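Journal club prep, shared notes

We agreed each person brings one worked example of a sequence with its structure written out as tokens. Mine is Guanine deaminase. I'm keeping it raw so we can talk through how to read the token line rather than staring at a rendered picture. Sequence first:
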Amino acid sequence: MAELTISGTYFTATDPNNVQSVKDALIMIDQTGVIQRILQPSDQEYAAQLQSARQADRLLELDSDQYIIPGFIDLHVHAPQWPQAGLALDRPLADWLNHYTFPLEVKFSDPAYAQRVYHDFVHTLLANGTTAAMMFGTIHFDANMTLAKEVVSQGLRGFIGQVVMDNPDQTPDYYRNSSAKAALQSTENFIQAVLKMQSRTGQTITPVITPRFVPSCTDEALVGLGQLARRYNLPVQSHLSESNWEHGYAIERFGQHDTTVMDHFGLLTDRAVMAHGTQLTPGDWQVLRERRTAIAHCPISNIYFGNGILPVNRLLKLGNKLGLGSDISGGYTPSLYHNARQAVKSSQQLTDGVDNHLLAEQRGVQGSRITMANAFYLATRGGAQALHLKAGVIQEGYTADLQIVRMHRALMPLTTADIFQRLMYQTEQADICHVFVGGREVYKA
Ligand SMILES: [Zn+2]
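Then the structure, token by token:
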């Protein structure tokens, strides 16, 4: 018998363009948290399985206005920036970093402060339907371990990076690794401590190689981080051609694009996730495709800091790996629902263009529009592919990382396709009723 059976209608992405819905299914989850079987009402065993799960009190039966969708996967989020989410978004990137972000991140030298923020942060991600996240911490070992402990105790699938930023030219005196050597040693200590925690708890908690971005790192640090990524076969995360400034910085310092620099240091692997990429060129896209490196699309953050819109439709068609990131606090919300909406809106603006002093046919980039199904794919299946997780899909053999949401009241008859749109456009945190990671309930409203 299944450990838990959920009966209800679900939505799941079958590929970047299509969403499948199955009405009144039985999702049967085994003791290891994997979806062992999915039965439909037409299946012979359906009635018997429903009955026995009910009798054993192992059935979660959804109301008629509740729906099951995969948990979302946030590919780019800065855990220590949670306290300032929604602040200072009117400032240019350099000002935002130097006057808001760095002074906030340095506070995580205090473990008690880290504990308070990270407890709330991890809870908030789960409450928003996010079941896995690739996170930046700070440069502080103790605070990063506090984040790791919160991830384990609350049940999020966590990919956590200890940030490296040792370049005196691009980081403030008060918030910088003392040297490349010290940064690399501390990173290796963090890797070993997290791997130990992983083997002790059996949970998905993974250390991530995390150069903040090319400007903040010396060559020595970048060389060492590339070596650590290889030696431990670990994921890598960073920012890549996020803005005009960042894109131009690499050209000025190395005479090469950010992508070429990262690649040179061995930081573009099939386990790497590079955030933003708004200024990448078709040549850069090709390098990322060849390396199987994913891009974390952060559409809300990009509106403020990106100086451009990532051409998601083109990249999906070319076969680049893509997922979605909230980029707290370059983005103001941890909700990937909001980010999926912005991804669709931004793509529409890229298609039409925004300067009405130009002729209509010269304003935009034709064919850039994406659908909500595309955005849903990024938040689920695309993210899982980037992190090598067998999740993001409701299918036999995949882990039961799920969210159950209540749809806003329907005042007219809705088709299944309408319901999907409704859920994606209107779900807020208060509408999320249950969240499961590996079949275990980690959040209940
Ligand atoms: Zn970021």
